[in-house]
Amino acid sequence: MSAASVLFADRDALGPVAAAIELCGVSKWYSLGQAAIRNVSLRIPHGCLTSLIGPSGCGKSTLLRLIAGLERPDEGRVWLHGLDITDHDPAQRDIGLVLQNYALFPHLSVLENVRYGLSATATQQPAAKDRAQAVLKLVDLDGYESRSTASLSGGEQQRVALARALAGEPRVLLLDEPLSSVDSGLRRQLREQICDIQKAFSLTVVYVTHDQAEALAVGDHVVVMHNGEVLQDGTPRDVYLTPCNEVVAEIMGAAMFLPAQVVEAGIVELYGYQMALPDASDVGACVTLLIRPEAWQVGAAGSPGFAGKILSCTYFGRGSEYLIQLEWGDVLATVWGAHTPYQIGSPVTVLLNSASVRVSKYRVPAGPAPP
Ligand code: ADP
Q1: Do 88 and 193 fall within a single domain?
Q2: For the domain that residue 331 is a member of, what is the CATH number?
């Protein structure tokens, strides 16, 4: 019997779904003073994997707990598939939750832990064991049924927690930093497994992470949070290439915003250097360019471009990141692949690869005029 034939078999019988999760003006205070969540209005699309990213303490887990019903909002409403669930208990919400520490029962076997994820009525049904076994197969844990969870590795425990959450066939699965205690090789494998399961059953998944690369890799939709607020949400490309402000740009990776002028349609000038940018059409306008480290090309001193000096180098295996001092400021540049490293203090030239530069809607606050 395939896992797919046992699990989520009656999914279509629930009928068309208007929306997945909607938060309308939600705020949460744990104590007087700063709100953990501030006036968040957000729509989480149905059948997609939404990654929720932001620095530690920005309110990601609180937002997840509000959706799961483990916290009640002080203001605002939470909707699930068109139904106001703000006052519903967690058990009434049809939502599965995997916590960072897995929260498995150490005195129960793997199978018993997974059966615990079935609803009270489902547990009594003769098919309950089949369902628990099917879900264990789905996460590659068939054969582990009688093992004690205490004897499992971190990755295996994570998969039991995932199986337990899936056993209840939830409409929505919430994952709170599910891979934070797993080493990097396994992390990638488990991440792919989560994505495969999400796609196979068209689940609505919300995946909390503070890792920018992970948020971009797993998410069909990315929500960027900071200080209890949602700053931006959109596709991974939207939030990476067209962040709405400097904070989002920084959360999604190193970035700098530089002021430039449109000198001709499709041509901008940045500190005396002209380059083609098809997005720049408003001749005479001052625009802001979003430049990430991979947009800079580092070359030998004396070539065309901005002259600079290497200040520091960080090797990260697949390339190196150089901090380079230019006449008008310092820039971070990535050089991919094996290369003879540039020595600290050596002169270089940097050029912009215009395909990696975006005209940003964000405006750099007025500051000193460029030289
Ligand atoms: P994140 O998941 O992004 O790290 P959290 O949602 O855990 O952030 O926390 C958001 C803010 O709320 C933090 O300032 C945190 O200290 C505070 N907070 C979280 N849980 C509680 C709690 N149970 N009691 C008091 N403050 C809390």
Answers
A1: yes
A2: 2.40.50.140
- CATH number of the domain that residue 212 is part of: 3.40.50.300
Q: 343 and 246: one domain?
A: no
- Cα of 30 from ligand 1 centre, angstroms: 8
* 58 CA: nearest ligand 1 atom: 3
Residues contacting ligand 1 via CB (< 6 Å): 30, 36, 54, 56-62
Same domain, 39 and 122: yes
Residues spanned by the domain of 154: 4-251
Last residue of a domain, one of 251, 274, 308: 251
**Atom number in ligand 1 closest to CA 34:** 14
- What is the count of structural domains for the chain? 2
Helix, strand and coil in the chain, % to nearest 5: 25, 35, 40
Q: pLDDT tens digits, the chain, 371 residues: what are they?
A: 455 555 665 554 444 444 589 999 999 999 878 899 999 999 999 999 999 999 999 999 999 999 999 999 999 999 999 899 999 999 889 899 998 877 888 888 999 889 877 755 555 566 777 888 888 988 888 899 899 988 888 888 988 998 998 888 888 999 999 888 777 778 888 889 889 989 988 899 999 999 999 999 999 999 999 999 999 999 999 999 889 998 999 999 999 999 999 999 999 999 999 999 988 888 999 999 999 999 999 999 998 899 999 999 999 999 999 999 999 999 999 999 988 999 999 999 999 998 889 888 766 665 544 44
Residue nearest to atom 1 of ligand 1 (CA): 57
Query: Quick one: 56 and 32 in the same domain?
Result: yes
Whole-number Cα distances in Å, 209 to 132, 244, 262, 316, 317: 28, 20, 38, 21, 23
Note the pTM of the prediction, 2 decimals: 0.86
What is the C-alpha separation between 177 and 199, in angstroms, rounded? 19
Question: How many whole angstroms from 31 Cα to the centroid of ligand 1?
Answer: 11
For the beta sheet containing 256-264, the strands, ordered from the edge strand earlier in sequence to the opposite edge, are 273-276, 267-270, 256-264, 286-291, 358-360
Q: Do 34 and 70 meet the contact criterion of CB atoms below 8 Å apart?
A: no
Residue 37 CA: nearest ligand 1 atom is 10
Q: Does one domain contain both 50 and 193?
A: yes
